[in-house]
Design a protein that fits this description.
The protein is mainly alpha-helical and 122 residues long. 83% of the residues lie in helices and 8% in strands. It has a two-stranded antiparallel sheet with strand order 1-2.
Length: 122
């Protein structure tokens, strides 16, 4: 009996560890998006300081290419919208993972309790 519980406990522990790894990856991805959001907000602020007489260049690979002011503003706005949407998606994903992780932790606690009880009976 104790061996069966121990095997199940080991399997559930592996599931829990995988959930934790996935959660860590999501947190890292979200942090990267936050950095991009900050960077793009700075670009937006800088573009707002300029007028139409200023020249803007966009870095494409190793080359600077001239870009229209309005195109630059639209591009940055779209990028900000995309990044914000991705951050929200990651937040929802992380909440779901945290909920599943908590359920898995409760299951592990019950299995560990059952295993200890089975060991004491044997």
């Amino acid at each position: 009996m104790a061996e069966q519980i121990q095997k199940k406990l080991q399997g559930e522990l592996e599931k829990y560890q995988q959930l934790q790894k996935d959660l860590s990856k999501s947190v890292a991805a979200r942090q990267k998006l936050e950095a991009q959001l900050t960077e793009n907000n700075i670009v937006k602020e800088e573009l707002e300081l300029l007028d139409d007489t200023n020249t803007i260049f966009k870095l494409l690979g190793p080359v600077l290419v001239r870009q229209d002011m309005e195109d630059a503003r639209v591009t940055v706005a779209k990028r900000l919208q995309y990044i914000t949407g991705e951050i929200k998606r990651y937040e929802q994903q992380m909440q779901e993972m945290e909920k599943r992780s908590e359920q898995q932790r409760e299951l592990l606690a019950r299995l560990q309790h059952d295993f200890q009880r089975a060991q004491s009976k044997a």
